[in-house]
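Quick one:
INPUT:
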């Protein structure tokens, strides 16, 4: 019996996994909210202590787990002070404190050199930029722990940096898979702030004074996307993937990073995967757009999706990666404003807004997959769409149409499944990823999709 703690940017889950005849059976034990909370200074933070409390509550519901592991979103961290305690908040990447910090780093190391080392997509809120906003004294005598590593430390007292998550910080050398002294020096970040690297499958500590006496904590692929990609039931090189949740992470799985100037210009990232693989992908805006609209409307999703199916396609489309969509707030108004700015009539009514979001996300998915195939010199024959977006039938169908490729949907709980698969393998129990639960085929010619993509500056091939 294994337990996965899978933390998303809006909710967390404690999920029990049992291996039966080589298949993993998942049972959700607890689901709890995790969304960012406002700070007095107007910034955003994660409620770390409440997350820990919920994790322990979920573990109490488990059936004598052998091990458990934690995966979460990337980039965000806590700082451990000289007294061994968390110092301050765990800030959210959606906090505006990193505005303009990238220009400061560019004075010390140019974009081409930086990408040649870390291979990382430019995102203005990456860990390296967050750390550069910290007072020098905090950097001098603290330790940085990314959220899953911080939870591990809080429960076991051991420090480490799991490599799939470490690869998202901008501080890891994509080729050597070690912390980069050159990047650290350029950013003014002392290397002593970083803990030693850990690999998925390593033992990371023991949780004591627990109802079962002791429970072993295992290092899994702690970046949720790395866990999700490990759970994809794909064999051979001919598949692309979309891990679709708050963000859509779109790409291919490779043996080596792609560090070309073309990849940098296309804003692709090279992140570590399980077994030394490289997740070559681009972060695109995902269901965040839809969830923010639903939060404002206070309306259930399913009736809106059904109504959106009857809305005309491409009535309004927009680039979902426009930075205006990053912060929380009035998403419907921002979408309308962006449509007007591009000479389009904003979508009328809530189903029209939902259809505009899904058409635009499908276009972004197709554009990223097309770029990944070209940059990695890889032919993509089918697409695995995993994560929460696999439940959205309309999005899956539109993605198949936009890509001109079959889309295999599921598993939904891919991150938790990948988390469990690492634990099972470490225990000597080989287990297979779950099979997709739905298949979507393109319904029509691709020309309308090409035209729609071109109207917002994208290419779908």
């Amino acid at each position: 019996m294994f337990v996965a703690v899978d933390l998303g940017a809006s909710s967390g889950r404690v999920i029990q996994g049992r291996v039966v005849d080589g298949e993993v059976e998942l049972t959700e034990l607890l689901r709890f909210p995790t969304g960012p909370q406002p700070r007095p200074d107007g910034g955003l933070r994660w409620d770390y202590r409440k997350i820990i409390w919920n994790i322990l509550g979920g573990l109490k519901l488990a059936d004598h787990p052998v091990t458990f592991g934690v995966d979460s979103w990337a980039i965000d961290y806590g700082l451990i002070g000289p007294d061994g305690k968390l110092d301050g908040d765990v800030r959210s990447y959606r906090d505006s404190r990193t505005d303009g910090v990238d220009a400061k780093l560019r004075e010390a190391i140019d974009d081409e050199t930086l990408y040649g080392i870390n291979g990382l997509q430019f995102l203005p809120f990456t860990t390296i930029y967050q750390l550069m906003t910290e007072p020098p004294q905090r950097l001098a005598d603290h330790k940085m722990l990314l959220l899953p590593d911080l939870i591990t430390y809080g429960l076991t007292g051991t420090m480490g940096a799991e490599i799939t998550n470490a690869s998202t910080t901008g501080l890891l050398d994509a080729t050597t898979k070690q912390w980069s002294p050159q990047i650290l020096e350029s950013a003014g970040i002392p290397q002593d702030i970083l803990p030693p690297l850990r690999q998925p499958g390593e033992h990371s500590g023991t949780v004591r004074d627990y109802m079962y006496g002791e429970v072993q904590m295992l290092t899994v692929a702690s970046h949720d996307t790395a866990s999700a990609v490990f759970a994809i039931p794909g064999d051979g090189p001919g598949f692309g993937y979309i891990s679709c949740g708050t963000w859509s992470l779109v790409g291919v799985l490779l043996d080596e990073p792609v560090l070309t100037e073309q990849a940098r210009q296309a804003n692709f990232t090279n992140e570590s995967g399980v077994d030394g693989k490289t997740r070559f992908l681009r972060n695109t805006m995902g269901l965040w757009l839809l969830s923010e609209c639903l939060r404002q409307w206070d309306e259930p999703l399913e009736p809106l999706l059904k109504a959106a199916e009857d809305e005309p396609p491409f009535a309004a489309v927009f680039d979902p990666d426009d930075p205006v969509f990053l912060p929380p707030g009035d998403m419907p108004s921002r979408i309308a404003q962006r449509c007007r700015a591009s000479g389009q009539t904003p979508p009328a009514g809530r189903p029209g807004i939902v259809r505009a979001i899904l058409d635009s996300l499908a276009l972004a998915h197709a554009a990223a997959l097309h770029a990944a195939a070209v940059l990695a010199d890889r032919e993509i024959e089918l697409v695995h769409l995993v994560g929460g977006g696999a439940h959205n039938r309309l999005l899956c169908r539109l993605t198949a149409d936009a890509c001109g490729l079959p889309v295999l949907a599921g598993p939904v709980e891919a991150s938790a499944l990948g988390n469990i698969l690492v634990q099972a393998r470490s225990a000597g129990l080989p287990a297979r990823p779950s099979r997709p639960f739905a298949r979507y085929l393109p319904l029509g010619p691709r020309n309308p999709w090409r035209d729609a993509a071109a109207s917002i500056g994208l290419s779908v091939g």
